[in-house]
Amino acid sequence: MTNTEPKTEPTTEPRTTPVAGGRPTKQRLAVANVLSTFGDFRSAQEIHSLLTDSGEKVGLATVYRTLQLLADSGEVDVLRTEDGEAAYRRCSDSHHHHLVCRSCGATVEVEGPTVERWTKAIAAEHGYRDISHTLEIFGTCAACS
Amino acid sequence: MTNTEPKTEPTTEPRTTPVAGGRPTKQRLAVANVLSTFGDFRSAQEIHSLLTDSGEKVGLATVYRTLQLLADSGEVDVLRTEDGEAAYRRCSDSHHHHLVCRSCGATVEVEGPTVERWTKAIAAEHGYRDISHTLEIFGTCAACS
DNA sequence: ACTCGATTTGACAACCATTCTCATCTTGCT
DNA sequence: AGCAAGATGAGAATGGTTGTCAAATCGAGT
Hints:
Largest sheet of chain A: 3 strands, antiparallel
Strand content of chain A: 15-25%
CATH superfamily of chain A: Winged helix-like DNA-binding domain superfamily/Winged helix DNA-binding domain
Oligomer: homodimer
């Protein structure tokens, strides 16, 4: 079961609502907004560049802080690339995983009752509680082959 | 299907065979050997400490280099902790995943045809090739609950 | 055993993503 | 407007990891 191409297309209307329960400041809104201009994973630094390039003046530290807020509140997904950097992307609400293209970064959100069930079962079987898991699938997408 | 507690117990006899195709130097053997004194994931720095504490004089850079060699040749597993650090552990040959205890680090190797099959299917379904994936399950083990 | 070239090592500098500091600016509220 | 809590930004500080390069080591051939 996969959600057929929920490609998470960019949304258009800029947001004006509070961000992660904090104050809806210019900067936070700016960050929240760039996040909706792309559908794949970007590093904090890239996001910062996007902002400054588009004229928004937001400090790097603030970008990191905001991204963390958003991540904590579940508004964005975080994944660690193979070299340990964190990459962010706004995400839909449900729990899911990602199929990421190694060369272009194109991402497809995938969902799998199968895995969820499996991890829970495995964990329980070994007496582990409070289960959480991370699963990323890497490959080369059709366009990049 | 899980391999029932393949806890990867420490092995006893020190190794003297080549390491990852390179020269079997004192340092490399030393690293390869500490790796077999524990069964859970340790950071490169921890491994370095273990070495120096036990009297072995191996440079930190060398530990990193060796660990990378071993990882490339598939002799050790690498996983990224949630804060982006790399953790290493010698591994059995087969492809598998880990169930890691959040508080004590106890690790259980798990294996799952289910997931393997699932990821392959998903990927193919979206036209991705050369699939690889990472899956880590985190939880609190029985002893730590 | 001895030599020589290729590898490897180690001490330390360099990197780089991320976090911290803290003085200054904003926001929300009255 | 006025204030206190919260947020920002510039830059310093951290900390894991990688790069540098001269000196040490390995091992194949003699």
